[in-house]
Amino acid sequence: MSRLSLNKSKKSAENNLARFPCRQCGAVLKYEPGTTHLLCEYCGFDNPIAERGGTIEEYDLQQALKELAQPRAEAAKPQIHCDECGAAFQFESNQHAGECPFCGTPIVSATAQIKPIQPKSLLPFRIDENEARRQFQHWLNGLWFAPNAVKKYARGESKLTGVYLPYWTFDSQTETNYSGERGDIYYVDQPVQVVRNNRVVTEIRRVPRIHWTPVRGHVSRFFDDVLVGASHSLPRKVVDALQPWDLENLVPYDPDYLSGFRSEFYQVDLDEGFDVARQVMDGVIYRDIAFDIGGDHQRIHQVQTRHSDTTYKHCLLPVWSAAFRYRNKTYRYVVNGRTGEVQGERPYSVWKIACAVFAALLLAASIFYYLEKTGALQNGQPQYQYQAPYDEVPPYYLR
After folding, report:
1. Is the pLDDT of residue 264 over 60?
2. Which of helix, strand or coil describes residue 170?
3. 288-299 pLDDT, tens digit each
4. Burial of 202 (0-12, 13-18, 19+ CB in 10 A)
5. Is 251:124 a contact under the CB 8 Å cutoff?
6. Fewer CB within 10 Å, N side or C side of the chain?
7. Exposed (0-12), middle (13-18) or buried (19+): which is 106, by Cβ within 10 Å?
8. Segment 125-150, tens digit of pLDDT
């Protein structure tokens, strides 16, 4: 794991900070989403972001875990000195890029002082704040059973914050041995009692049964770029729902892309991140096992998976983040900075849900009354749904 190099932008030797002056007039620059340059808003000079050659590397997981297990001195969060206004301050505990709170100058600090693993790649922002706000408004207006007061918020001018969130990606070759049972449906004749013309009669019907056969087998799968969010700032279910990401377009880490945006340290350590990734892989492996077993139903009793050639990357991915308050509760939402996908927390209107339930019950009662008056219920054929005995019901089905 090589240490992070900030050799492109102007740096402060004291704090190892990256700053972004215009090469022509010296004004502070900010990255414009969807571009590969920093355009000066004062003199109009185009400051291109130089392309960095090389491929995005994968790093050996086991080797990294051994190195991380070695004793390491606890690093204190550095004091940041702004050269523009002279202010001294600190970023939030989970942040390493942002703006000076006094003059708004973009500043990016090196992560090596705080975290042993540094980001080596990122996806730059593709959509700007205005487009992200339009996507949010469309999402909020489309929410079912949302309170009217919340939908009015969509017409407001909410402030969005551009943030680069830390992620881990994992590759792994898996080999899995399993044992279980294959369930095949067959049918038997069984007498059942039904009502015909107000009389109870016995009919012979074919009902399903399940024949279970013990099975053993082996499945293998290579997992590529299993993505795990490494931030605690947002709920995992919200961040995970922003997928898919176009990870094939990752570019080498360059602080110029962070100018004008916030960026966070990883808060989920590497070993914890792999534990989450392994759970994701296990879900896919169970589906592979179910397919390998075949039949109509499957029971899986034992699973033994071996991981090999496991590698990781640490990257930064862009989101637009904001929150709104409704009845003294804060609801957070995020917009994928590449695709515009919106995910977030939302309130529900109890009255709207109650009215919908009442309307559905009223409609069902009206249909039942109509069918009863017309005699359609008596003329229709009865339908039966097979319920397997308790000892025939598998612990779970994987279709």
Report:
1. yes
2. strand
3. 999 999 999 999
4. exposed
5. yes
6. C
7. buried
8. 999 988 988 888 787 776 665 656 66
List the domain boundaries for the chain: 10-172+220-282+309-348
How far, in Å, are 35, 182, 192, 277, 293 from residue 398 at the CA level? 46, 11, 30, 21, 10
Place of tokens 């704090």: 15
Omega before 119 within 30 of 0, i.e. cis:
no
Question: Tokens standing for 245?
Answer: 């990401």
Query: 251-252 and 121-122: which strand pairing?
Result: antiparallel
CA atoms within 13 A on the CB side of 338: 17
Q: How far is CA 365 from CA 25, 356, 372, 375, 380, in A?
A: 75, 14, 11, 15, 18
Dihedral sign (CA 290, 294, 296, 300): negative
Higher pLDDT, 227 or 265: 227
Residue 272: exposed, middle, or buried by beta-carbon count in 10 A (0-12, 13-18, 19+)?
A: middle
Which alpha helices (H) appear in 173-222, and where do they start and end?
none
Distances (CA, A) of 205 to 183, 208, 209, 383: 22, 10, 13, 11
